[in-house]
């Protein structure tokens, strides 16, 4: 006798022919009964079938009889479509016993309210919240920084600091306000009282050269010449960077030379677009950032003297905490008594200084210093100006 194995949904069923023979012997031993008009149903063969899958897809088997499953697993409910699809009766029918693996389910009972809040959702599944941004196809123009700032300002969700005051300092060469780009005109350097020049505008002038200490020489000379030269690109005065080709008169501002695509070289020379070589050059300079210490060489003594000699000053002359107001004057008959081996004491000199208070250890106040004349000798006067107190006047015959 041979055994037959049926396979359905990855599960195996063993059908033995010996069982069929045993059923036939039992049938013969039983006394025969009168035949009824209905066809006698053949005996059933019992087989064990175990599966851990809750959903069965067995359409080729006849309708099976229900059997009470173990208490731990619920009975199987087949879909109605299976009952509708009936097949012809076979000599033997199979009886399937299914063992299901119980699933974790939330327990709902009257004791649920008495449990601590941490165990209330035990056994429940959680879902993750995700955001998906869909950008429509087509031409999409991202908003600029100004539009974003305006939008955030309307929402009032951010705190924006106060705007930085505008820098009104203007370069004497290119006439642009404020510091320039690092890889461009660069920072502003002080040339004289309220006179400023960009570092690269001065450095790339024809007359200017740089010392090993970082001093720029002949900047004032280049400025005087630039006041009479017109730029070939913008047609404004102040151009000082000329083409180094012999007998070429093209001259530019430094910023205009970059815009006109002039070629700069490492030996501090420049060629205009008409005379520059085609293609790239080994000595070509394409980066103009200057991070070393560079300053304009000037005669500070002469500069201070020119400031002092000006009658009407629109600017405040300040050295540290000392603010200069007036220089005063000396007559010929006062020269012998109003000077020492180290200093002059002009009558009418006036300056103010911020220094520590004589009354409070952690405050500052203003000291107004002046020089007057008394009996043909200088009189040094210090007026102490402090808020909340009357002015205190101190006098002496010496500066100390």
The CATH topology name of the domain at 188-295 reads Herpes Virus-1
CATH architecture of the domain at 188-295: 2-Layer Sandwich
Structural class: alpha+beta
Please report the number of helical segments. 7
Structure in a nutshell:
By secondary structure, this protein is α+β, with helices and mostly antiparallel strands.
Question: Would you give an account of this structure?
Answer:
By secondary structure, the protein is of the alpha+beta class. Among the domains are: 188-295, Zinc/RING finger domain, C3HC4 (zinc finger) (Herpes Virus-1); 313-396, Double Stranded RNA Binding Domain, CATH 3.30.160.360. Helices cover 14% and strands 20% of the residues. It has seven helices and 19 strands. It has helices at 17-29, 80-84, 145-155, 199-203, 219-226, 254-259, 300-309; strands at residues 3-8, 11-16, 45-46, 94-95, 188-192, 195-198, 209-210, 215-217, 241-242, 251-252, 263-264, 270-271, 295-296, 317-319, 322-326, 350-356, 364-374, 377-385, 392-396. The strands form seven sheets. The protein has a six-stranded antiparallel β-sheet with strand order 14-15-16-17-18-19, with no helix packed on it. A three-stranded mixed β-sheet has the order 7-8-13. A two-stranded antiparallel ribbon has the order 1-2. Strand 9 and strand 10 (251-252) form a beta hairpin. The longest helix is centred in the first third of the chain and has 13 residues, at 17-29. It is flat and about 135 Å long. It starts with a strand and ends with a strand. The relative contact order is 0.06. Residues 1-22, 24-40 and 81-92 have low confidence and may be disordered.
């Amino acid at each position: 006798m041979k055994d037959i194995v049926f396979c359905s949904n990855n599960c195996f069923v063993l059908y033995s022919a010996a069982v069929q023979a045993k059923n036939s012997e039992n049938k013969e031993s039983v006394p025969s009964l009168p035949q009824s008009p209905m066809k006698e149903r053949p005996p059933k063969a019992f087989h064990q079938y175990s599966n851990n899958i809750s959903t069965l897809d067995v359409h080729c088997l006849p309708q099976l009889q229900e059997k009470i499953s173990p208490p731990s697993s619920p009975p199987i409910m087949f879909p109605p479509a299976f009952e509708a699809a009936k097949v012809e009766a076979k000599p033997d029918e199979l009886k399937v016993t299914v063992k299901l693996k119980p699933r974790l389910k939330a327990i709902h009972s009257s004791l649920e309210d008495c449990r601590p809040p941490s165990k209330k959702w035990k056994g429940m599944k959680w879902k993750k919240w995700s955001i998906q941004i869909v950008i429509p196809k087509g031409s999409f123009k991202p908003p600029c920084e100004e539009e974003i700032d305006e939008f955030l300002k309307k929402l009032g969700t951010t705190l924006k600091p106060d705007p930085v005051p505008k820098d009104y300092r203007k370069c004497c060469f290119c006439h642009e306000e404020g510091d320039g780009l690092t890889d461009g005109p660069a920072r502003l350097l002080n040339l004289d009282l309220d006179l400023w020049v960009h570092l690269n505008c001065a450095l790339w002038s024809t007359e200017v050269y740089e010392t090993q200490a970082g001093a720029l020489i002949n900047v004032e000379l280049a400025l005087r010449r630039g006041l009479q030269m017109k730029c070939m690109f913008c047609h404004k005065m102040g151009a000082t960077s000329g083409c180094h080709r012999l007998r070429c008169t093209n001259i530019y501002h430094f910023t205009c030379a970059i815009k006109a695509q002039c070629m700069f070289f490492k030996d501090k020379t420049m060629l205009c677009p008409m005379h520059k070589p085609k293609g790239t050059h080994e000595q070509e300079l394409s980066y103009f950032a200057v991070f070393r210490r560079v300053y304009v060489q000037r005669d500070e003594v002469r500069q201070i003297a020119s400031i002092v000699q000006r009658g009407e000053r629109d600017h405040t002359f300040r050295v540290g905490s000392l603010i200069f107001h007036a220089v005063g004057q000396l007559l010929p008959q006062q020269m012998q008594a109003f000077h020492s081996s180290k200093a002059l004491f002009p009558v009418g000199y006036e300056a103010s200084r911020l220094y520590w208070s004589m009354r409070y250890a952690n405050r500052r106040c203003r000291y107004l210093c002046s020089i007057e004349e008394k009996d043909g000798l200088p009189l040094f006067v210090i007026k102490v100006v402090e808020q909340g107190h009357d002015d205190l006047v101190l006098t002496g015959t010496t500066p100390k």
